[in-house]
Amino acid sequence: MASIVYKMETLGVTRKDSVVTVTINQPNKKNAINNLMWDGLTEIFREIAGNSADRVVVITGAGGEFCSGADLSGRGDAAQRSDTAPRNEMHQLAAMRRVNEACIALQKLPQPTIAKVRGVAVGAGCNLALGCDLVVASQTARFSEIFVRRGLSLDFGGSWVLPRRIGLHRAKELAFFGEIIGATDAYEMGLVNRVLPDSEVDAFVDQWAQKLASGPPIALAQTKQLLNNSLNLTLEQALDGEAAAQTVNFSTSDTAEAMRAFTEKRDPKFTGR
Hints:
This protein has eleven helices and ten strands. By secondary structure, the chain is α/β, with parallel strands linked by helices. The protein has two domains: 211 residues, Alpha-Beta Complex (2-enoyl-CoA Hydratase, Chain A, domain 1), CATH 3.90.226.10; 48 residues, Orthogonal Bundle (Lyase 2-enoyl-coa Hydratase, Chain  A, domain 2). A seven-stranded mixed beta sheet has the order 1-2-3-4-5-7-10, with helices on both faces. A three-stranded mixed beta sheet has the order 6-8-9. Helix 4 crosses helix 5. It is globular, with a radius of gyration of 20 Å.
C-alpha cells in the first residue's frame, strides 16, 4: 500500500517500495505552479534528499497533464502600472529566487529521478521534466520552451539543461521559437528517453523505478554526480572523481554483497550501507 506522507492541496507525495512519487495537483490550471508550490517542491525535494529510505523519485502531474509552467495569473496587470515598477521588480526577483531554489533542490537530489509526462510540459514545466535524470513520455505529451511567446526568457534551469541534452544549436531553436513539439519529435531530438502509448506509461515507469530502487544507492548516487559534473571537468579531473567514488564503493557492504551474489549466482540485495 502507498501511504501519503506529505500533502497540500496542490502537491502530493506518496511512498511505495522505496519509490517516492511527487504529484503536481492543480489540474484546473494544467498543473501550473504558483509561489507556494515552488516553496513546497523545494521542501519536498530537500526532505527526500535526506531520506535514505527513498531510493527513486518519480515526478508527474495530475489530470492527464504534466505541468503548464509557472502560474502567471495577474502578472500582466501589475506590469502595466509604471508607478509600481521598482516594487514589482523586487517582487519578481524574490519570486524567481523561489523558482531557483526548487530547481537547485531537484538537481541536488542524490536519488535517480524520473519524469512521467502526459499532456503539456511547457515553460518551467518543460524544464522541470528535462531536469530529471530520465524522462518517460506518453504519446500525448507536448513540450515547449514557450517563454519567448510570453515575452520571457528561459528559467528553471532551461539555459543549463537544454544544451546538455540536445546541444547548443538545437537548444537555441527551441528557445528562440518556443514551438510546441510532440513526444515523437522530442524523442528524436533527445529530449526524452522513451515514448509509449498512454496505457503503458505507468507500468513502464514502475518497472524502471523498481529496478533502480533495487540497485546500489551509494553507487547510483555517485554515478549520477559523476555524470552531472562531467561537462565541467577535464578528463584527468573526471578520472580523479571516478577513483574517489570507487574507493568509497569498495568500502561499502553493498559492493561486498554484489561480489558474493555474483559468485553465488543470485541477485544482490543492496541496503545502502
